[in-house]
Amino acid sequence: MLLLQLFYTFFKIGLFGFGGGYAMLSMIQGEVVTRYGWLTAQEFTDIIAISQMTPGPIGINAATYVGYAATGSIWGAVVATLAVVLPSFILMWLISRFLLKYRKHPTLEAIFSGLRPAVVGLLASAALGLMNKENFACPQTDGYSFAVSCLLFVVAFVGTRRFKINPIAMIIACGIAGLICY
Q: Model pTM?
């Protein structure tokens, strides 16, 4: 029963996770932490960190880890991974069949215009969802960790946006800074 629930949950996430893996994170968190309680918020934060470090799309990596953690077996990982990928596969197959024929149709253009703000909203939700006490500490209980986290966030944001620093170099630099500060 858990495998069917896992399949349904990740199929739904894969179907409505417009905007890529980072946009899926808030949906995954809402389902696996809040709704079903398969993971704690700390476990989910750890899974996101591992998903970011391993090769491949973050949404698929997160689904794989959540599937394994929720069931304790490789079958949970396989089911969650297939479920999150299957909607994209089906949609891409359908789109490739019809998009070239109807790409200038007003209805299709209106659909894509409506999806753009939804993608921005999902990405913003993922960013705000990751700004929790596990990642940024709490200013009332641990002011130092909170200040360091906020400073690293601002430096990384400004460095990548304003000064066009390579994101990989920025991740490494922030990791070293975090190691030194903590």
A: 0.59
